[in-house]
Fold this protein.
Amino acid sequence: DQQVKQNSPSLSVQEGRISILNCDYTNSMFDYFLWYKKYPAEGPTFLISISSIKDKNEDGRFTVFLNKSAKHLSLHIVPSQPGDSAVYFCAATERRDDKIIFGKGTRLHILP
Amino acid sequence: KAGVTQTPRYLIKTRGQQVTLSCSPISGHRSVSWYQQTPGQGLQFLFEYFSETQRNKGNFPGRFSGRQFSNSRSEMNVSTLELGDSALYLCASRGQGAYGYTFGSGTRLTVV
């Protein structure tokens, strides 16, 4: 049973435009959500997170939106840059010390 | 400060053999988690150790085991290797009270 779902395996976006990556979850007990970015041959790196008590968190070009009623979150990257081409993983956890569950990832291609 | 260090980076083993992977967490981090990444499956949680005790476990067969030492370093062992065990194995650590992980670069295991 996949608790964190990223239904788009890949996404292509023109440089300078907005990239929107989506994520759905099934466990209503999740209270913290994270996005990680991964380049080939490297480990994932933390990008941005959001607590379930918020509906938006912004950090520079990256904004995460959380819709708890729909059990949906999205990552917006504006403007998209070539270095943003990577695999993005959505993740969630129930408690501070609990395991983090990851989605299968979305590969983002930024086109010149 | 040094990041999460995983050794070796690459490993080739024969089916039926066993393998041990090593992880040194960030200094001061007592929680160490292991994930398996395969194409199309994302990051699948193996187990988490905290202060030498396994705190969480994923849905992997008993051939996958781990341990943590008093200095927080961790090892993961896979016995009776199968072709399907070929994957990138990622170790991550986090500080007490933190939500997010810091990942190492991973060990690429190929079983032939």
